[in-house]
Amino acid sequence: MAIRRKSTKSPPILSHEFVVQNHADIVSCVAMVFLLGLMFEITAKAAIIFVTLQYNVTLPATEQATESASLYYYGIKDLATVFFYMLVAIIIHAIIQEYMLDKINRRMHFSKTKHSKFNESGQLSTFYLFSCIWGTYILVTENYISDPTILWRAYPHNLMTFQVKFFYILQLAYWFHAFPELYFQKTKKEDIPRQLVYIGLYLFHIAGAYLLNLNHLGLVLLVLHYFVEFLFHISRLFYFSDEKYQKGFSLWAVLFVFGRLLTLILSVLTVGFGLARAENQKLDFSTGNFNVLAVRIAVLASICITQAFMMWKFINFQLRRWREHSTFQAPAVKKKPAVAKGRSSRKGTENGVNGTVTSNGADSPRNRKEKSS
User: Fold this and answer.
1) Which of 49, 132, 219, 282 is the most buried (most CB within 10 A)?
2) For residues 260 and 361, what is the distance between their CA atoms, to the nearest angstrom?
3) Burial class (CB within 10 angstroms; exposed 0-12, middle 13-18, buried 19+) of 372
């Protein structure tokens, strides 16, 4: 009687795409719980805190404004709204990854390093483009461009329109969603510190502008910064498809420096001059007035340090890129050894070009074997 041997094969390992999709399905179910909660009277009051914006105030019509306006201010319940839209950002991230980026990766056959960088640039370029278009629309409709004094006039800007508050909620939700994505995307351990630094910088500055009622200045600086970053990541996407493409990086380098200078000018003009000359310079938490000397110095210091850090990283990147380019264009030329006539000179020509030994030269294992024989 034949005895069946127990199979020693290990269970199949789940693919990365399946793991990511599985997490996206779980997050989708959690988000649906909040949406279904709106359908029942018992849970509607709790679910509405997560789905809709809170703390709205209706201003009556006046002589200047013929219609009543619904404005918003911030509060502790905004954390629940940020949490819900963080789940939405995870779902959208998975959709873009599965139906766009993964299909391109299969066609291009990228290496592991290029694969992760391509996914990063693909996700960020989509987000930056969306934020730039939406932010520019807000700047135009709210007359931020036609009247720059609105950046500091009538401070504190504790009341926001629906689209301004929703913009900030989605910004915070997106950058908070980047933390679980480090696990979902199986980010390498050596890349995690770099990711945590720039995620933390985004959250620090966006939350600072939101909580200190500097949402006008923060919106302008975000649109400016996102446009420059979008150009970098879209140029990197083109570079992965064609490594000869370098024009986008040259344009990005110019706009990056210009963006840093413009950020400093707008920050100093708004905080250092506009708010410094305001009449009301008393700390008042009830009205959201933080226009005091200590806060202004802290705001300017954080912006200047961040811009200096970015410039330092940019200069190091450009120097490393210049060294690699110069090494590629002008390789080191070795002296051509003196060879005898006849067979030895022909062999030296086959081994290298202009005196440099190639992988098929005399140092190859095959030639060493022939010599020993």
Assistant:
1) 219
2) 51
3) exposed
